[in-house]
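R.M. (postdoc): so does anyone remember the format we settled on? I'll just put the structure tokens first.
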């Protein structure tokens, strides 16, 4: 049986970090998933003047202060990508490739960097379209696979799949130099549409098309409606109340993912509220 956490936080921007601090203060057993870079968007900000107490600082400087605070509180970030989260009644199952975590409550703080789905993507999800190449690799033994990736660190998944599939086409959507196995065919083009019959059989690009048995789309984060089945959305944002509650019991959300304005101080405040709401929920569950 998996170890069960009181709380799992998905996202390491200001909302997720603020939630983690409050979970630590309230002495809950929690885990936070994200990256030790914390937030790419924050790091790129040239100057921030609307974060109380941090005037005239760059995003990178504020990020460094966040890191010091995490170190002081002895909070570490689990650098693993959550592919799916399932509500199991009195707990949530969080899937990471072939691994699973359990938590009584969750806070979604993944930001809004998941991009717009391709035409046909949602229609063929689970019918040839997937978001985790290593999870589904055995299904594509000796088959043709296409991978679209938005970050250089996904190259490990590409290389792994190239040892299983008969052919791998790779569309890197980033600017850095691509370093993948020689057997992988790199295609510099823009994906437009996924088509098929009952399953995927073709990817239409701006200047060409690829016949393929499967397509993996490796974005920095999965759209929340796809990450957590049954989650109520308001357009591309998660619908929450003032306590950051979603429509799923024990599931809370905070930060850019719940809507505008996309401000760091607003995200941190919502992370604080989400954590306090989650703590109340966890205490309620433990009394039963």
């Amino acid at each position: 049986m998996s170890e069960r956490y009181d709380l799992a936080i998905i996202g390491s921007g200001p909302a997720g970090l603020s939630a983690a601090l409050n979970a630590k203060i309230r002495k809950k057993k929690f885990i936070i998933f994200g990256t030790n870079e914390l937030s790419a968007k924050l790091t790129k900000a040239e100057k921030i003047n609307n974060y109380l107490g941090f005037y005239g600082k760059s995003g990178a400087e504020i990020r460094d202060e966040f890191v010091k605070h995490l170190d002081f509180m002895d909070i570490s970030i689990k650098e693993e990508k959550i592919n799916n989260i399932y509500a199991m009644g009195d707990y949530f199952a969080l899937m990471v490739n072939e691994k699973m975590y359990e938590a009584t409550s969750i806070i979604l703080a993944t930001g809004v960097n998941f991009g717009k789905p391709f035409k046909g993507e949602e229609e063929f999800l689970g019918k040839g379209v997937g978001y985790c190449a290593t999870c589904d690799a055995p299904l594509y033994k000796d088959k043709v696979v296409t991978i679209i990736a938005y970050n250089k660190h996904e190259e490990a998944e590409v290389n792994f799949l190239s040892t299983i599939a008969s052919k791998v086409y790779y569309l890197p959507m980033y600017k850095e130099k691509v370093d993948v196995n020689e057997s992988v065919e790199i295609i510099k083009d823009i994906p437009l549409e996924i088509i098929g019959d009952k399953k995927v059989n073709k990817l239409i690009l701006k200047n060409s098309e690829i016949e393929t048995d499967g397509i993996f789309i490796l974005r920095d984060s999965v759209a929340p409606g796809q990450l957590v089945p049954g989650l109520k959305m308001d357009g591309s944002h998660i619908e929450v109340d003032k306590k950051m509650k979603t429509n799923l019991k024990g599931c809370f959300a905070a930060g850019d993912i719940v809507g505008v304005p996309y401000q760091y101080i607003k995200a941190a405040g919502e992370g604080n509220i989400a954590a306090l709401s989650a703590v109340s929920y966890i205490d309620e569950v433990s009394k039963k």
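R.M.: ...and that's the designed sequence above, right after the tokens. Also worth knowing: Residues 4-114+222-287 form a domain with the FAD/NAD(P)-binding domain fold (CATH 3.50.50.60). The chain is about 25% helix and 25% strand.
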